[in-house]
Recover the amino acids of this structure.
């Protein structure tokens, strides 16, 4: 295991301290706990707050989407582990501007448990909340059980759109409806080539043979739907894209946003080789890419691999994606 | 070798096609060759053009720094190989707005040879040029021979500052002077943990044992100055930072820009662990970080490792760093 770290148990707090030292103009911690991060101007009076969170190890997810036009706060846990309900609640209080708080995070058991506990704590405090779960990983459940799917990289579309809705003054119910609408029109599929090595144990999150890949793998190494010989970039793009197009029932004339996301160790060059094929296939199907993102948006430490996400667009969704946003890791200018 | 690619010999052209498909609003190719990229509005009449280039495999370097307030054009070669003089010359003609063209690239033999040939071609065409070489890698030569050093990640400071100077209307000599001033006040040192695997051969660019690291390694795997047992993040930061501070003769009261750059496979979390220590050490020495960049700015495909660059600041350098810029990979808003 080759990592640039100090004491493994200090890893999460140390990179969070680094983020706070690097970006004091954009984010702050409301108390002493670097695992709770809110935008520097939080709370914004009269604005709906958005709190996200989850395990560490996915930068720029989740810490990277706190800022103007995005989320207001985040609480994160150890690598691949949920934050505590107390941490979620502290983030909630810190971003509450009097218009309520939306919880927007990925559908994982530990996160749901702790955010739900914080819902109750917030209610006692008189802070109304709504919850929308990212559940875009089509490999994790069939379409009929879409609400039970895991949340992966596609949640950034929901951060962006809900963040823009909150910024323009939408009510709590309206912001929640925007997030839900985005989630229901987002689909993601990933491929893993090499595992994450967990800092505390030094153990890989899964194992693959020298020439193997796994399609549909989760960002914590959850099993996918196909394990086999490593394919070409074009074949991989084809295998990831087809289920997404089917899941969203895309037809000629539709518009989409595309996210080609690197899982950590995969070079940007390879992501553009994938994007090229995605663009070609969608163009051939008469589907327009009205917005694209290529890079690392939700990773799994040093996992090699990638995911493709599609968001089916309409005018209002595209307008929300194009609205100004600013965090240390995400700029829409 | 696990890569998401098609035919290895098509790798470079395919990722460049991907970039062109993804960002037609920001960049274009002046002819049929995707290895020549210029900003979408090139040539900008009356503005000094800036052309960079070098080998492929370093995204976002070099292709990523073409845009408003940055470079105007780029010509790139195969992985780790120089572009041809014909390609450099084609980029030159495409960005020539009548105010001359600055060549700003890293100090490597093949690149110098081909850019110098293009200098002659441009002269025949009546396009005046100036050349400034990035030579920030302090591990590659001692201070007395600073102009012979290799160019690595620190060149992005020169792109940013020279690009801003050109954008505000500086003359060719003035833009060249800005670039030269930045280069002379920039120092970089890197550490490698695992090698790049070359797509065409499947061979690693260098070899390191399971627990080894190499300090001072070049971005093509050029030998460094110390090979030994992998150290902690804080120790690595200390070993990279001290020579940079000495090289730039930093003293209490100085201001710097810091770039903590990932070489490809190193998680963003680890870069922030390094940044934390860099910040602590500089603060302890009474040196202010007035600008910071943490992420992947100049990579070596899937090499694991990082580099630290410092730019000694004054008011005019900082103003140029803070000026607006926009490329597919770099935004200063």
């Amino acid at each position: 295991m080759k990592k640039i770290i100090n004491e493994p148990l200090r890893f999460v707090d140390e990179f969070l301290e680094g983020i706070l030292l690097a970006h004091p103009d954009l984010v702050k911690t409301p108390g002493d706990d670097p695992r709770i991060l809110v935008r520097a101007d939080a709370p914004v009076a009269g604005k709906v707050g958005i709190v996200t969170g989850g395990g560490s190890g996915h930068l720029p997810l989740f810490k990277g989407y706190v800022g103007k036009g995005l989320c207001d706060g985040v609480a994160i846990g150890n690598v691949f582990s949920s934050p505590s309900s107390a941490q979620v609640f502290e983030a909630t209080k810190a971003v509450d501007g009097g218009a309520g708080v939306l919880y927007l995070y990925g559908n994982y058991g530990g996160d749901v448990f702790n955010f739900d506990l914080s819902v109750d704590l917030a209610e006692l405090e008189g802070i109304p909340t709504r919850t929308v779960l990212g559940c875009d990983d089509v490999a994790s459940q069939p379409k009929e059980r879409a609400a039970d799917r895991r949340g992966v990289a596609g949640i950034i579309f929901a951060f962006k759109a809900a963040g823009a809705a909150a910024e323009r003054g939408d009510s709590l119910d309206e912001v929640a409806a925007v997030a839900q609408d985005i989630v229901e029109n987002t689909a993601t599929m990933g491929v893993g080539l090499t595992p994450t090595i967990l800092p505390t144990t030094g153990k890989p999150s899964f194992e693959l043979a020298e020439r193997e890949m796994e399609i549909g793998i989760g960002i914590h190494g959850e099993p996918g739907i196909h394990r086999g010989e490593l394919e070409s970039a074009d074949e991989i793009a084809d295998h990831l894209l087809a289920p997404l197009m089917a899941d969203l029932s895309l037809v000629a004339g539709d518009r989409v946003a595309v996210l080609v996301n690197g899982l950590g160790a995969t070079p940007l060059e390879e992501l553009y080789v994938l994007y090229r094929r995605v663009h070609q296939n969608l163009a051939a199907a008469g589907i327009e890419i009205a917005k694209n993102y290529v890079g690392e948006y939700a990773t799994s430490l040093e996992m090699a691999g990638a995911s493709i996400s599609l968001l089916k667009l309409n005018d209002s969704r595209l307008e929300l994606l194009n609205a100004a946003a600013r965090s240390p890791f995400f700029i829409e200018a």
